[in-house]
Q: What sequence folds into this?
């Protein structure tokens, strides 16, 4: 089976945060799991680099917009190495191939009769890069998402997309239970449709915003950033070329998008309507993760509670960072993370848990076994927890095996038995080495380097260096 998986594209107006790191790791874990089962995988991520918010941020920083987006794109691209992510493509919406694809998407939607021009007055939030209705705003005019921004009244002539035309088709798409995970996000999308879909603006006047993809056949307008950016999900596959990766992974493969919970309208409604308009098949499934808060509050620079993925890697290392985000951040609900909790999870479950078990068992094996034990081959199998995007539960199952092995050592005391009855002691130790090997193999999609070290140690009958050093 061919599988396509993609993250959203974060704006390049700030450094990477751990919410996007979580999204990357969700996608990477799934991609690694599928590849291990012999499936063909195309995994894409990248950066969203157009729009008024980025233009204003570049001006504030005193940089040219291109220099500004180049700087932040590199910061996001560095996550590949920092988090050991195995993406096959990193797409930037300023890439010439993407620009051509976005303009072709426009032409196809226009050919379907779904793009028209009109004058419009509305309240516009720069943070969301979209016009807002009254229900999207607080009584004082502040955006409900970007609470520090007042939505300004803007009047201009723009192009609009006939979103309302696709109410029935979107309702049918969302009636499929596997279209959106978790299910309450699918219900949220259905509620949006039930509330009525209004046509939305897909362009801005170039006189007001120069930083965007030009609208085909109209030099006075640039594309609305969302219309441009959403096309990345197929431009990364070489579309509008209908052959190659697009044919293999989108037309004939299984497609999955990973996104944050604030993306439901954009990914499950707007993007799917654009695909329908252009005559392209839907995304098969979209999985929405929750947000990460700190100390009971949303992370923000002004509160000083922002945690960078690079800070996590610097303190705990890549493998431990993967562990902390994949197991201790809930995959679909909001989670609260503090440095104190991170320290506790790291020490209890990596230093005193996995690390201690491997050290104890392999020291016993190195000391009392004459050579490597015969190990059962490991075969990658489907994990129902991963299929349901329950990354934490999948890892809980592995740590339950770690706990059970620890309990066996405590109960059977092989370090004593091997002195009193060498044959019986060696049998217990060999069985524990086999269990360590199985645990190491099970870790592969989550902690790939740890998996390699543990399985190699078991096969070589030697104690590895400490997997996770104690915090100083």
A:
């Amino acid at each position: 089976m061919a599988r396509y998986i993609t993250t959203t594209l974060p704006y390049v107006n700030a450094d990477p945060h751990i919410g996007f790191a979580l999204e990357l790791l969700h996608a990477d874990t799934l991609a690694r799991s599928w590849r291990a089962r012999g499936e063909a995988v195309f995994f894409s991520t990248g950066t969203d680099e157009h729009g008024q918010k980025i233009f204003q941020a570049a001006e504030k920083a005193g940089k040219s917009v291109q220099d500004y987006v180049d700087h932040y794109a590199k910061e996001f691209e560095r996550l590949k190495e920092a988090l050991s992510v195995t993406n096959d493509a990193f797409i930037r919406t300023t890439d010439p191939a993407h620009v051509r694809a976005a303009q072709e998407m426009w032409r196809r939607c226009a050919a379907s009769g779904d793009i028209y021009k009109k004058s419009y007055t509305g309240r516009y939030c720069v943070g969301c890069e979209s016009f807002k209705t009254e229900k999207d705003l607080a009584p004082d005019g502040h955006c409900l998402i970007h609470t520090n921004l007042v939505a300004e009244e803007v009047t201009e002539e723009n192009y609009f997309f006939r979103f309302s035309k696709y109410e029935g088709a979107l309702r049918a798409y969302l009636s499929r239970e596997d279209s959106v995970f978790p299910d309450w996000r699918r219900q949220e999308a259905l509620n949006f449709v039930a509330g009525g879909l209004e046509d939305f603006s897909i362009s801005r006047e170039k006189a007001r915003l120069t930083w965007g993809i030009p609208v085909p056949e109209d030099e006075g307008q640039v594309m609305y950033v969302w219309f441009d950016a959403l096309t990345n999900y197929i431009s990364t596959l070489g579309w509008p070329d209908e052959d190659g990766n697009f044919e293999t992974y989108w037309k004939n493969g299984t497609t999955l998008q990973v996104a944050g919970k604030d993306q439901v309208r954009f990914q499950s409604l707007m993007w799917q309507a654009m695909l329908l308009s252009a005559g392209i098949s839907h995304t098969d499934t979209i999985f929405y993760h929750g947000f990460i808060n700190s100390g009971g509050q949303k992370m923000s620079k002004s509160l000083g509670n922002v945690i960078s993925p690079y800070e996590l890697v610097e303190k705990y290392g890549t493998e431990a960072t993967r562990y902390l985000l994949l197991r201790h951040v809930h995959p679909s609900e909001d989670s609260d993370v503090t440095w104190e909790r991170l320290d506790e999870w790291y020490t209890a479950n990596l230093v005193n848990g996995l690390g201690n078990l491997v050290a104890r068992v392999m020291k016993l094996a190195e000391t009392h076994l004459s050579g490597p034990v015969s190990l059962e081959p490991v075969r990658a199998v489907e994990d129902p927890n991963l299929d349901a995007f329950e990354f934490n539960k999948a890892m809980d199952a592995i740590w339950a095996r770690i706990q059970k092995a620890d309990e066996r050592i405590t109960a059977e005391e092989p370090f004593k038995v091997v002195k009193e009855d060498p044959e019986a002691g060696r049998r217990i130790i060999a069985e524990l080495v086999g269990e360590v090997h199985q645990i190491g193999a099970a870790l592969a999609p989550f902690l790939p380097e740890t998996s390699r070290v543990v399985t190699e140690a078991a096969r070589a009958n030697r104690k590895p260096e400490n997997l996770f050093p104690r915090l100083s």
Q: What stands out?
A: The chain has two domains: 2-289, 317-460. The chain has 19 helices and 16 strands. The domain at 2-289 is CATH 3.40.50.620 (Rossmann fold). The longest strand covers residues 115-125.
